[in-house]
Design a protein that fits this description.
The chain is an all-alpha fold and 262 residues long. Helices cover 76% and strands 0% of the residues.
Length: 262
């Protein structure tokens, strides 16, 4: 029996690495040719769906299904024409089908809110969440120094800061944490144990390859890993979601406008 279990775990690990390599290769090719990148992400999506359907390993099948969120996010980000919308509207529009995909996975897999970090934050873990929120400001500034993105809103407009910040928290911070540290991490740790948090962090960082900076990829990995550990400890994604949202507010809104600087 022990040999069978070890063989199953090894198969899960090796197949997970194959899909990780596939996503890495697809992201690298996307840098040079976005059209080919979209086609390869669609291929990855189809392979994950087919494999999830055919796999007799129930836990691994569920992981494969939620891993489809990674190519879905990239397909949407690559295919939605940016020139028709403002950048902040673009973030909001992309989040809608991703939320639909997440809630579809939750429904199909009968996931309970507490299993994916949607439990109310516990008071005894409040200091941990406060630390995550406070470090978001310097992390956002560091990432700004790495990427130097253009501002996505004009802060001279009255309500731009408030409305844009809400969109960044809901459409990037909470959305990505629900996907990665919530639903994907739940299945990754169920199938690979503690190694699951490293796997989730690798997948999350890989999706930053398009930023063309190894430093940004490393930053995404270590921040994602810290978030994974916090969620494992607290059982809640709310603190890291707010932290993630603040990083993006600093990166795309405050720092480009010169409001925050190192």
């Amino acid at each position: 029996m022990t040999i069978i279990i070890k063989r199953k775990l090894l198969n899960r690990f090796l197949l997970s690495l194959i899909y990780l390599d596939l996503i890495i290769g697809t992201e690298l090719l996307t840098v040079f040719n976005p059209v080919i990148g979209i086609l390869l992400h669609i291929t990855t999506l189809v392979l994950l769906l087919i494999h999830s359907t055919l796999s007799t390993d129930r836990k691994f099948s569920q992981l494969l299904l939620v891993l489809t969120l990674a190519p879905i996010i990239r397909i949407l980000s690559l295919s939605l024409p940016l020139h028709h919308f403002s950048k902040i509207t673009w973030f909001a529009l992309i989040s809608i089908p991703v939320y639909i995909a997440i809630f579809t996975c939750m429904h199909l897999q009968h996931l309970k809110p507490r299993e994916i970090g949607l439990s109310p934050p516990r008071l005894r873990f409040l200091p941990i969440d406060l630390v995550m929120i406070s470090v978001a400001f310097p992390v956002g500034l560091i990432e700004y120094q790495i990427l130097k993105p253009e501002p996505i809103v004009n802060l001279l407009e009255g309500e731009a800061l408030i409305s844009s910040s809400i969109i960044m928290i809901l459409s990037t911070g909470f959305l990505e944490e629900l996907a990665f540290r919530g639903i994907i991490q739940y299945h990754a740790t169920n199938t690979m144990g503690i190694y699951g948090i490293f796997y989730v962090s690798f997948v999350f960082s890989i999706l930053h390859i398009g930023n063309l900076s190894i430093f940004d990829i490393l930053l995404a990995f270590f921040v994602g890993l810290a978030y994974s550990i916090v969620v494992m400890k607290t059982g809640s994604i709310y603190g890291v979601s707010l932290s993630h949202g603040i990083i993006n507010i600093v990166l795309f809104i405050l720092a480009p406008a010169g409001i925050l600087t190192l």
